[in-house]
Amino acid sequence: MTTTSSTTSFAASVLDPIRAIVGERGIITDPGTMQPFMESWRDGWVGRSPAVVLPDSAQALAAVVRICAETRTPIVPQGGNTGLTGASQPHADGSEIVLSTNRLNRIREIDLDNDTMTVEAGCILANIQNAARDVGRLFPMSLAAEGSCQIGGNIATNAGGVQVVRYGNMRNLVAGLEVVLPDGRIWDGLRGLRKDNAGYDMKQIFIGSEGTLGIVTAAVLKLSPLPRATATALVAVSSPSDAVDLLTRAKGKVGDRIITFELIQRFCIDIARRHVPDVPDPLNDVYPWYVLVELADQDSGERLAGMLEGILEAAMEAGEVLDGVVAASKAQADSLWRIREGIPEGQKREGVSYKHDVSVPISKVALFLDRANAALEREFPGIRPFSFGHLGDGNIHYNPIQGEDGDPAEWKARLGAVNAIVHDIVVDLGGSISAEHGIGRLRIDELPRYKSPVELDMMVALKMAFDPHNIMNPGKILRLNGNAR
Q1: Is 403 exposed, middle or buried (0-12, 13-18, 19+ CB in 10 A)?
Q2: For the structural domain made of 357-428, what CATH number should be given?
Q3: pTM score of the predicted model
């Protein structure tokens, strides 16, 4: 992965007042100790920094930002460092400090009557889920990195996951925010309100901004009732079009009891089984496409399973479903989920893949897959389609893999051309080139191709209003005035 450098240099004298604020526990300058903060867990984003700073309060973080604002020192906010677009790694020139939220990890309040939880940005997502469950509530954000990702990063990237179809993404789950602005002021917007029509909804400005407008230090999260029961099934379908028909049928019967509706190409299961232990083959026969569907409700498990079985029986009679299995126990449900969870790891080991986190209207998912597969096969014979993802909200991870026995270097060189083909089709169908992963550095040079000049002007105006000196995560999402940063 290439990195861009800047002419900006780092003034080592900046570290002395920062150290005075955070103490020796709050700053790392040893290169070896800093290394985990410098590199991404996937896709090879690597940078350099003179220091990783770890404040233990919003006030200390704000004081550090004020010093950086006064000295024009660029900042890279970083949470759990589980992102996929290079947004949380510094550039290679060593001019930026990394500002980690690892020590901002307290749950400040749980308000059961209001169904909200106030947490600091460094809280691990799984810990928030468990804290909610301990008091009989659900925090529904769920994704593969939940054991290490932090809620501040989830908010900064507007994270999605497998339950968006019912609960929405992070935009739907945040009631209020506390944010340190690029000049070091703290905005206290920690209001746990469902209705607040007093002017602009400022929290939405920061959700999905990838740390380019400010640093989230705390959030009021919305909680939901903890479901009493779930019902899980994996079914086979002939095509994505039949899967969409099944989704429409299910929504008509059980509404928002659907919490997960995942589309899986057969090739994805084959690759997962090839490379990942304990991934089962769910059905006796092999089919081209599968759907993993899960319902949740306050009803009994028996009644919920009956609802799911009724939907699937009707779908089989209509020819939408070819075969399937309904989990009879939690262990069986976990086994079905193991298939879905093993797909990204299997793909990583199979060879060069072209990862596209795209969304289109649900009604156009099948058309997108047909058009993209045909276009890539024409241009790059032997490329292997590899598609899975969140059909319930139109977010498909379209990640074709290099041809078998091909030269990885040659296939890597085709990345730009593959991206252009796929993303042109996505946008032509009214979709987005980033459904849940963000822009970061990965898509920064593609964004001008797919955003109108008016929309880009609005984004730049917003950035300049909040961060006129471009110190907050520069070179992510937007390039300003044609500069690398």
Answers
A1: middle
A2: 3.30.70.2740
A3: 0.93
